[in-house]
């Protein structure tokens, strides 16, 4: 039997098992509420591919989208409009600094951030946050010493 190429329609089992707290593949858009979410290749979104896992879940109504964990069909978070995507990017560096600086492990950093935000650590992912929560997380990470 010919080995099928790995794709979100034929994901890597090992990569899938490694993802903690996987979200289900979205069908309903969390931005506009319509059932118009499709799994698309980057070619359909950007006209070219970026990285080695060029796929997104994208709402064909409001055009919110989110990437996938590499070699899986698992979304990185909730679908995001442009403002949310920008907030996620802008607000993450102070948090990344907490563990990249070696002051604490990545798990410790998530535990402290979750405690500050008063949310379960399993729900503490920038990819799951809306723009307002991203801003709260940025402030919290700065208070924890991140820059
Ligand atoms: Zn939508």
Please supply descriptive tags for the structure shown above:
2 domains; 3-stranded antiparallel sheet; globular; about 10% strand; binds zinc ion; 6 helices; about 150 residues; DUF3268
Walk me through the structure.
There is one protein chain. The chain is mainly α. The chain folds into 2 domains: about 15-80, no CATH class; about 85-145, no CATH class. The protein has 6 helices and 3 strands, in the order αβαββαααα. The chain has helices spanning about 15-20, 40-45, 80-90, 95-100, 105-115, 130-145; strands spanning about 35-40, 55-60, 65. A hairpin with a 5-residue loop joins β2 and β3. α4 (about 95-100) runs parallel beside α6. It is globular, with a radius of gyration of 16 Å. The mean pLDDT is about 95. Bound molecules: zinc ion. Zinc ion (ZN) binds near residues 59 and 64. InterPro entries: DUF3268. Pfam families: DUF3268 (PF11672).
Mean pLDDT across all amino acids: 95
Number of strands: 3
**Domain unit count:** 2
Main pleated-sheet profile: 3 strands, antiparallel
Tell me the number of helical segments per DSSP (H or I, 4 or more residues long).
6
Q: How would you spell out the order of helices and strands?
A: HEHEEHHHH
Across the major sheet, the strand order is 1-2-3
Strand content: 5-15%
**What structural class should be given to the helix and strand makeup?**
mainly alpha
Helix content bin: 25-40%
Bound small molecules, by name, code or SMILES, are: zinc ion
Shape: globular
Spans of at least 5 consecutive residues with low confidence? none
